Amino acid sequence: MTDAAELRSLTRKLLAGHPPAETDRTAFLQARFDAGLAWVHYPSGLGGLDAPRSLQAVVDAELSAAGAPDNDPRRIGIGLGMAAPTILRYGTQEQKERFLRPLWVGEEVWCQLFSEPGAGSDLAALATRAVREDGSGDWIVNGQKVWTSSAHLARWAILIARTDPDLPKHEGISYFLCDMTAPGVEVRPLRQITGEAEFNEVFLTDVRIPDAHRLGEVGEGWKVARTTLMNERVSIGGARIPREGGMIGPIARTWRERPELRTHDLHQRLVTLWVEAEVARLTGERLRQQLVAGQPGPEGSGMKLAFARLNQEISGLEVELLGEEGLLYSDWTMRRPELVDFTGRDAGYRYLRSKGNSIEGGTSEVLLNIVAERVLGLPSEPRNDKDVAWKDLSR
User: Fold this and answer.
1) Are 305 and 364 within 8 A, CB to CB?
2) Does the active-site annotation cover 196?
C-alpha cells in the first residue's frame, strides 16, 4: 500500500527529473501521469498507483509548492469528472490505455452528448438512433443533441443512443465514445442570456462509430450513463473550494470594501447565505471523503441541488447590494468561451449565468425526485411508460 511518505518521495523525484521551470507544460503533465501521480487512486499504468484517493492531496500540495503546472481542470472538467470515471469502470483495457492519458493531460477535450430537444429532463426518452451495420459491425448514428458544453472545443464525446426501439426506454440504449471530428458531426452555437455560446447543439448525420468505441454491453447504456450522471453531479456540486470560494467570495469582498452599501436587512441575508455556503462546502468535503470507499451515490444530487439554489440566491443578493451598479453588464459580445468563469466576471454575468445552474447537470426537479426516492426512501412517482416499448410511446 502506497503511503504519504512514498508519494512525497515519488513527487519529488518527478520534480527533480522534470523541473517545472525548465520543462514544457505538456511534457511535465505526461511525465506526471506516467509516474502514477495524476489521480493516485486510479490503477497503476493508468495515471495512478492504486493508492487511497485521500492521498491525492499530498501530491497536489508538493506540486503546488514547487510551482508545477496543473492540467487546467476547469477547461477539461467533462473529461475529468464524467468521461474518465465511466471509462475506468466500463471500458476495455484498450479503451483505458487509449483515452485516459490524453484526457487527463488535456490534449483531448471531451463533451457530453446526452440531452436532446425531446429528452431533457426525461433523458431515457432519447430518440437518437444507432443502427449496427451489416458486415463492418460499425454503428451508424443519426439524431440531435442539445445543451452540449464545450462541443466546439471537443475532440471526443460520450454519447448515448437508442439501439433497440422495441424495448422499454431505459433498456434499449447503448453508450458510445464519439469522435467529434468524424464526418456527419455538425456543431452549432447556442447563444445564451449572457451573450456567450458556451453551449451548443450537435447534429449527427450518418456518423460512423466503430464497435470498439462502444462502452459497456449493447443495451446497457442506461446503466453506464447513470455512472456518468452521478459523477457529473458530484463534480458540479461537490468541487473542492476554500472558505469563501465560489459565488460567496465576490459578494463578501464587496461587503467588506463598500460599507456605504450596507443595510441591516442585507447584512442578515448575507450572513444567512454565508453560513449556508460554508455548510455546503463542508458537506462537499464529507462527500469526497465518502468517495474513498467507492463510487458516488445519489447524495451527489443533493449537493448539486444546493449548488444551484445557493448560486442563484447569492448572485441575486449581490446585484441588489450593488444597486444601480448591479444593473450594468460589461460585454454582450458573442463569444464561444473555453470555460465558465463565475468569479472572474462582474455581478451581472454571475446573476445571468447562474440561472442555468438549475438546468445543467440534471434539472433541480429531477434531482429532487432522486433525493426523495434514493436518499430518503420515499415512494417513487407513478411511471406508466416503464414497461412499454419505446416505439409505442406517445411523442
Assistant:
1) yes
2) no
